[in-house]
Design a protein that fits this description.
Order of helices and strands: HHHHHHHH
Structural class: mainly alpha
Largest sheet: none
Strand content: under 5%
Helix content: 40-55%
Radius of gyration: 18 Å
Number of helices: 8
Length: 201
């Protein structure tokens, strides 16, 4: 059974009385979502990816399904470029686990109670990443989110040059402005904003 959405509060998780197999499934799904967020590179790094991680918490806001206010979307892209990019990849610690087949090995040794605590820790970290108020979300927040993973593998926060990332220099294959324009004629209100438009009606 899959558990795509769960509460973040410990007492609510406890009340669900999830068995060991469901706890394992929930933890693996959340780790997978965080890893996919971490491993995006260059043009594929985007503020819309946040929603795919936050979606595992049951009270998270829905992600955008249509273009909405064009300038508002571009403002989010400019903010992302300013606060969530870096000049180079983060150094990988010497004690990191490079073999991805071993990344979830720690779960095999956990009791049901251990797994419940681990699930709560992940839910809490995702909630912290989601619920930032009165300031911009930054790469420091992303780094903190990624630390909940056992492998200690770091991210590459480098972004393309500003004109390529925010403009249309690489259109129609890249660039925020080109991306939003590709959705400008979508009228259904159910765009998949993780893909380029034009979305089918």
């Amino acid at each position: 059974m899959k558990w795509p959405k769960l509460p973040w509060a410990f007492y609510k998780l406890l009340s669900l009385n999830l068995d060991r197999q469901n706890l394992l499934s929930a933890i693996r799904e959340r780790r997978k979502a965080i890893r996919e967020h971490r491993d995006q590179k260059l043009d594929n790094r985007c503020w819309l990816e946040d929603f795919l991680v936050w979606a595992v918490i049951d009270d998270s806001p829905p992600e955008p399904v249509s273009l909405g206010d064009f300038e508002k979307m571009m403002a989010k892209c400019r903010e992302f470029y300013q606060s969530r990019g870096a000049d180079g990849p983060d150094p990988i610690p010497a004690d990191s686990i490079r073999n991805s087949k071993l990344w979830d090995f720690d779960l095999k040794r956990m009791t049901r109670e251990d797994l419940l605590v681990e699930l709560y820790a992940i839910q809490s970290e995702i909630k912290t990443h989601r619920d930032i108020k009165n300031r911009r979300r930054t790469i420091f927040d992303d780094r903190q989110l990624y630390k909940i993973l056992p492998e200690r593998v770091t991210a590459d926060f480098r972004l393309p040059p500003r004109k390529d990332f925010l403009g249309e220099a690489k259109a129609p294959d890249a660039g925020c402005l080109a991306f939003w324009k590709s959705h400008s004629r979508c009228v259904s209100g159910t765009c998949n904003l993780h893909k380029w438009g034009l979305c089918p009606p």
